[in-house]
Input
Amino acid sequence: MASLTRTLPASWYRSSPLYQLERRAVFIKAWYLLGPVTRFMRVGEKVEYEIAQVKVTACRMSGKPRDIKVFDENTGMDFKSYITETGLLFSTISDDAPSFDEFFPNLKPLIGTVDFTRLPYRRSIKYEGNFNWKTMVDGYQECLHCQYTHPSFSVYYPPTFYTVYNHENFSQHVADPKKADDGLFLYFFPNCTLNVYGGGMSSFRVCPTEKPGVTRMEFDYYHIETGDKFEEYFKFVRQVAMEDYELCEKAQENLERGVYAEGILNPVKESGVAHYQQRVLDLVCKQRETEVRFDAGDARESGSDSSEMIVAPQLVDPASS
Ligand SMILES: [Fe+2]
Output
């Protein structure tokens, strides 16, 4: 029997040095969905982001549809950014990221089928929660919890047909293959999502803070309607978001207690979790290897004992060994 996929260790959800390693290995080298171009309609209006402690500003420079600049306000330097054919703006947070096509091979055919600019921007909200960024992404990447956590959502999007298709740096969730323009959920590794359901569209970012147990959630909402019809949609999707929020805080409490070390993932129903966790694991291990080798080289050059130079976080939960 093939071995079952295990989760990341619980210690990875509560360690500051591990988060700093994730930051260097994953976040600094990634691309981020800032939103559809309809988020940036007013010329000169600055839309500000903070991703993994890097401040990013996006600003429409003129009335031309694709004239949006993404830059570091302190230095004035541009970040690499990319607007897709169907109007999604992505950005990096450092020059260490590869090209858009290298980071997201195979994304264009998928997002080329949906017009993401048909729904106007309506509202943004953000708030902090007491959970690690991966606790929220774990929940997003599976729908096993949907039936009991989201009773109102499950009525419209029953988990019967729910399917996740994983690609290198994104996952596509389809609630019902017969309704391609609704019930479409996209996860962009590591921490952005785009959700077309309930008649509207939302995009959220799961922003890690320097505290591994605290994450800032940022949501942007898009809908054709204003007034009561928008409020009805907003109430529905906020209900789902708050149900996830409560679930994450409870899950994090368990991760913090030190009783649970790691678990086994359902190969069918949790393939999205397994996929993104494997990406994190691979990138973190590769980064650590590079840094240890680099530190050892430095130590050799200076003639000191390399074992004293290497200060790396523990990658294995002591409780599991
Ligand atoms: Fe959920």
In short: The chain is about 35% helix and 25% strand. The longest helix spans residues 271-302. The mean pLDDT is 90. The longest strand covers residues 121-129.
